[in-house]
Amino acid sequence: MSAAIKLAVGSLLIGGVVLGLKVLAWWLTGSVALLSDALESTVNLTTALAALVAIQVAQRPADSNHPFGHHKAEFFSAVLEGVMIIIAALFILREAYEGFLNPRALDAPLEGVLINAGATAINAFWAYILIRQGRKLRSPALVADGKHLWTDVVTSVGVAGGVLLAMVSGWWLFDPIMAALVAVNILWSGSRVVKASLSGLMDEAVSEDSLSRIRDAISDAAEGAVEAHDLRTRHAGQATFVEFHLVVPGDMTVFDAHEICDRIEAAIGKAVPDSRVTIHVEPEHKQKHTGIVVLD
């Protein structure tokens, strides 16, 4: 079992525990804000399952129907997660509206807040682990799951503050007001997750930092060539695809040109792990005098 799959399974287990604690907090208090927090945790659990399935699919080797691999499966999971976040926010807004129409005093608010705080602490720890390890493993699904959990942490803190404020002031409208604010924050978070995932599905280029490392690797390793141009990149899950044209002297042998290509592929692999490199070799009359200058 890979590290990414272990983390996805861990998200399922922790999501179940956190959901149970938040449902208990809502059951004790009857708070609309705490109910909204519990509803978001049901989304956490659903999306953790989606992330697990997506990661398993993404790690399948390339086949005849998918010669470039299955890496983009993780982006579909992240899009689903964003959509589920938005749906949860709409449910929360409905509950908040009902709370505005019929505000009521809460039962055992302090006990509910304390239980919810325990669930929030668990979520905060796991969100940190998912984001850190997801970036290390270059897993969009894990990073999206971690960012979603962190949003849950922030909203849970706000929910607790709203419940405590309602308890101290006796103005029970604070409870549905906080639930509505939670919903708005979740909508914003969901839109960001969807936007980031769609960029991967649309073959967006790698970051400027990664592109700079790729260009430097080509320039340093292409000794004997003339130039490299028409560099194109895209990322799909853990894989980075790199394509460019390499101009070599017209009298260079195929063997020597291939040796240069091997050096470049190895250099890019060190600069950007899990890269897939395609190089089109051209004679020197094809040079454009633009692109990447080869260092001597």
UniProtKB/TrEMBL annotation:
Chain ranges passing through the membrane: 7-28, 34-55, 75-93, 113-131, 152-171
GO function term, MF aspect, one: cadmium ion transmembrane transporter activity
Tagged with keyword Transmembrane helix: yes
Domain Cation efflux protein transmembrane: 11-202
Bilayer topology: Multi-pass membrane protein
InterPro entries reported in the protein's UniProt record: Cation_efflux (IPR002524), Cation_efflux_CTD (IPR027470), Cation_efflux_CTD_sf (IPR036837), Cation_efflux_TM (IPR058533), Cation_efflux_TMD_sf (IPR027469), CDF_Transporter (IPR050291)
Gene3D superfamilies listed in its UniProt record: Cation efflux protein transmembrane domain, Cation efflux protein, cytoplasmic domain
GO cellular component, one term: plasma membrane
GO BP annotations, alphabetical order: intracellular zinc ion homeostasis
Keyword Ion transport attached: no
Intracellular or extracellular location(s): Cell membrane
Domain named Cation efflux protein cytoplasmic: residues: 207-284
Keywords carried by this UniProt record: Cell membrane, Membrane, Transmembrane, Transmembrane helix, Transport
Homology family: Belongs to the cation diffusion facilitator (CDF) transporter (TC 2.A.4) family.
Alphabetized NCBIfam families for the sequence: CDF
PANTHER family attached to this UniProt entry: MITOCHONDRIAL METAL TRANSPORTER 1-RELATED
Protein known as: Protein p34
Protein source organism: Marivita geojedonensis
